[in-house]
């Protein structure tokens, strides 16, 4: 059973579509990188999957149940604005969140907070650093023992050490419980460390969806003389050019023509290529 599926999902705010005709199925046990430029629709998609926003068209299902404005008991969502009760201490917050959830593991929360460098249970939530706040919020999300964890930019505002700790918490969760994770982020090198599946959206539409290794193997970067660009076959995603040299991202893994060097892209150059294409489309619209 797929933890999350979308069928022709769209969300319109007034006259503008934030998400448009999105269809995908997230396989169980995957760690999914949800990427795309600012305003691509990532948060809207996650908020719809968590039942906080209703789609204008189409349907989202979590564990084969229509979302319908309610979060599934097996799903936890970390919102971008980490909306926790700021006047409570960490200890009080833990009790309050436990009381709100039918299924709750205090041990799991303790375990996760124990992985972090010195979380002070008596500190007021509002006084925590951005990193500690995110980590406490993730611990609360894991206390529900989710089978699907939706994380909206869990790594933003974190210093490198806090980012590393947060990634370790997520990896430990996946290793211990096989939890499926969908996480949005702009930090591609961090995503590469933990993710095995990519969902790239742009302008509210799915551009790339699949196993990261397979997706990378389906693309090629070709570098060669600008003057001979017409000899290159295949679907061009985007290009950068100097006076003499062109660097092309192609959607198919075809052999490089003579005089061109072909390599498989890494995740960063693949996503950058799609973001570049998106910016060019927008500026020529
Ligand atoms: N509540 C809202 N009312 C009106 N427009 C909205 C609302 N929420 C999002 N939007 C618009 O929908 C589009 C998609 O926004 P969304 O926040 O989902 O993108 P995102 O990919 O998460 O962006 P970012 O990477 O900057 O966080 C944007 O144009 C945004 O301005």
UniProtKB/TrEMBL annotation:
Transmembrane stretches, start-end: none
PROSITE patterns for the chain: ABC_TRANSPORTER_2
Segments forming domain ABC transporter: 4-228
Keywords associated with the record: ATP-binding, Nucleotide-binding, Transport
A Pfam family matched in the record: ABC_tran
InterPro entries attached to this UniProt entry: AAA+_ATPase, ABC_transporter-like_ATP-bd, ABC_Transporter_VariousFunc, P-loop_NTPase
MF-aspect GO terms: ATP binding
Protein name: ABC transporter ATP-binding protein YtrB
Organism: Kibdelosporangium persicum
